[in-house]
Structure to design on (305 residues):
């Protein structure tokens, strides 16, 4: 099957000015419930963040050319969509999330959330076959109980906040899984970091002055995290780091109060059994290496004052 590693690199994030909540009418449908996040804050919580909750599942039956049995694909979506943040529509965040939602090896450019939902629920990408191989497709109530092991394919997408709005940063995780037969499926998690005050999605260059010098810092952090003395010792314990002895830099990261986290899917720097690798790089390591940008220092001041 295709591992779909194209999903692991976020599409170019298009910055946009925030508009009024009413401008996002296309993103809020009557089929879902708006949920207000609860968090102690001096600002009224209703003004801080409101989410649209989507929880949908769809099963489809596909007849494939030259196959004796039909394929059943089940697509599941569980999304917490940030309709507003701080009373405004986060246009740049919406654009980044729409770009990341695509389950296709050739990502589509969705214009609205409803368009993305409809396309993902109808997708047959879990089959990992060309569209010319599909003879027919129709919706079914559910995957039959007698569907054989190799004919039941699944795709799962979950979009949830991992760092609650605190007036400064808001972090969302997009977790996706695909299974199309074999010993196991594939999964990955992408992270989107949004500065609510500046109304923009963060890039790694906003936090690090020189990405070319970042790999040794990530490698050092991983060695300390795993209590290992060498790359060889890491590789003896489920890692698959290349011969150059450095953990590659990834643009898939998330921010917390004191650390940068660089996240790698299975088979990138770890074997499948170890799962995703979350390498925690404390801010002080970046500061010691003269890699921290003024923006990163501002973040640290924001969370420690």
């Amino acid at each position: 099957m295709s591992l779909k590693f194209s999903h692991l690199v976020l599409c170019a994030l298009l910055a946009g000015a925030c508009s009024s909540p009413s401008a996002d009418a296309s993103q809020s449908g009557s089929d879902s419930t708006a949920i207000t996040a609860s968090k102690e804050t001096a600002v009224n919580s209703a003004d801080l963040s409101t989410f649209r909750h989507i929880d949908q599942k769809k099963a489809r039956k596909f007849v494939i050319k030259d196959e004796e049995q039909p394929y059943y694909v089940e697509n599941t979506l569980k999304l917490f969509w940030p309709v507003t943040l701080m009373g405004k529509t986060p246009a740049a965040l919406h654009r980044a999330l729409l770009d990341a939602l695509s389950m296709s090896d050739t990502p589509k450019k969705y214009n609205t959330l409803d368009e993305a939902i409809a396309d993902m629920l109808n997708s047959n990408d879990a089959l990992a076959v060309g569209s010319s191989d599909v003879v027919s497709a129709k919706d079914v109530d559910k995957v039959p109980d007698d569907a054989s092991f190799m004919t039941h394919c699944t795709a799962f997408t979950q979009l949830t906040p991992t760092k609650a709005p605190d007036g400064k940063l808001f972090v969302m995780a997009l977790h996706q899984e695909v299974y199309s037969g074999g010993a196991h499926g594939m999964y990955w998690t992408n992270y989107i970091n949004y500065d609510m005050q500046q109304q923009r999605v963060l890039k790694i260059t906003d936090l690090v002055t020189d990405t070319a010098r970042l790999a040794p810092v990530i490698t050092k952090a991983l060695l300390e995290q795993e209590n290992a003395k060498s790359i060889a010792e890491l590789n003896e314990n489920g890692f698959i780091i290349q011969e150059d002895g450095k953990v590659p830099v990834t643009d898939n990261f998330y921010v917390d109060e004191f650390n940068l986290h660089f996240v790698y899917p299975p088979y990138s720097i770890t074997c499948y059994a170890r799962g995703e690798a979350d390498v925690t790089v404390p801010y002080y390591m970046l500061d010691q290496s003269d890699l921290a940008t003024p923006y990163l220092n501002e973040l640290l001041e924001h969370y420690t004052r």
Summary: The chain is about 20% helix and 30% strand.
